[in-house]
Design brief:
Helix content is 0%, strand content 29%. The chain is built from no helices and 17 strands. The strands form two sheets. Strands 1, 2, 4, 5, 7, 11, 13, 14, 15 and 17 form a ten-stranded antiparallel sheet that branches. Strands 3-6-16-8-9-10-12 form a seven-stranded antiparallel sheet, with no helix packed on it.
Length: 328
């Protein structure tokens, strides 16, 4: 049985089994619970653009639009399986998407991982192109003819009607797409770094299967020039601090100023004739970085900012040289 999972950080192959318990299924094999139709037919009947049949999500391709996740995701891995039922089919998988379509077009502002069958064409391939659409931007890892589009380094997709596997890692504005087990396309400096996941309807009859995701741990925050601050000599009567982790240990002898060495337990004799009152030394405080959890929970915001499209999104998509990238 095929299933759809996301590990905030995964969708998968027919034989996919999550390597650990951090992966979360995105598809229950029964219905579209957890997914929201956007700009597509959604009447609750067999005539809808997206339906579930034989434990798979079936997309008719008409009308054009997306089926997006209810939840937003930030740093994650998502894995999925897909196959076109007709040669030349067109679709895609969006990451970091807005909730609603861009003004005047059927798709959302997002980053698209192309799912296309056929021989390719002038300025696009069918092997896993990655590009920003409708106002999003990125830096291609392997640039080519069309601006804002990253091209795969080798051909690994299988033709219709065979199954293909995508593994997409999205972390802090960076994307890596693995096709059938090998990373072939990368992009960096993505303007969108939090948003929804979307299955695209764009004319092709396509089946989606196993999908899963897993969250990346949030990045550790650090303060610039965060070297330990120097402290004045401690009072011998002040108890030593206890480490928040590990067994309790005997309090160490008090330490003095790092430059002057340990302070003596015997008080120093009073000064004979001080010429001026001593200035109190400012108390030093040590900063403690905020703690982070091992696994980040998905964001639960109900909406994302509506995008202003930078260009139109015709069907089929076209993108002459020197313009922002769109999907073919």
């Amino acid at each position: 049985m095929r299933s759809l999972l996301i590990a905030l950080f995964s969708l998968t192959l027919p034989t996919f089994a999550p390597a650990d318990d951090d992966f979360t299924s995105l598809f229950n094999n029964k219905d579209l619970t957890g997914w929201v139709p956007v700009n597509v037919a959604a009447t609750g009947t067999a005539n809808d653009t997206f339906i579930v049949k034989d434990n798979e999500i079936v997309c008719t391709g008409l009308p054009t639009g997306v089926l997006r996740s209810e939840k937003m995701y930030e740093n994650f891995i998502v894995e999925l399986e897909w196959r076109h039922l007709r040669p030349g089919g067109n679709s895609g998988f969006f990451v970091w998407s807005d909730a609603l379509t861009a003004k005047g077009v059927p798709f959302t502002r997002a980053v698209e991982n192309q799912i296309l069958d056929g021989p390719g064409g002038d300025g696009f391939t069918t092997q896993g192109d990655v590009f920003a659409i409708h106002g999003a931007t990125l830096t291609p890892g392997n640039p080519g003819k069309w601006k804002g589009r990253s091209y795969p380094t080798e051909s690994r997709t299988k033709p219709s009607p065979e199954w293909n596997h995508y593994r997409i890692e999205c972390n802090n504005g960076n994307i890596a797409l693995a096709v059938n087990g090998k990373v072939v396309t990368t992009a960096n400096n993505v303007s969108q770094r939090k948003g929804y996941l979307c299955l695209e309807s764009e004319g092709g009859l396509i089946h989606f299967s196993t999908s899963a995701s897993r969250n990346f741990p949030p990045p550790k925050t650090s303060t610039p020039n965060s070297s330990p601050k120097k402290t004045t000599a401690t009072n011998p009567s002040t108890p030593a601090s206890i480490s928040p982790t590990g067994p309790s240990r005997p309090s160490p002898p008090p330490r003095g100023n790092p430059k002057t060495g340990p302070s003596s337990s015997t008080p120093s004799p009073p000064a004979k004739t001080p010429t001026s009152p001593s200035k109190p030394k400012p108390s030093s405080k040590t900063s403690r970085p905020s703690s982070t959890t091992a696994i980040a929970a998905p964001a639960t915001s109900n909406s994302a900012s509506e995008a202003k499209p930078s260009n139109s999104h015709p069907n089929p998509k076209t993108n002459p040289p020197g313009t922002a990238a769109t999907s073919p």
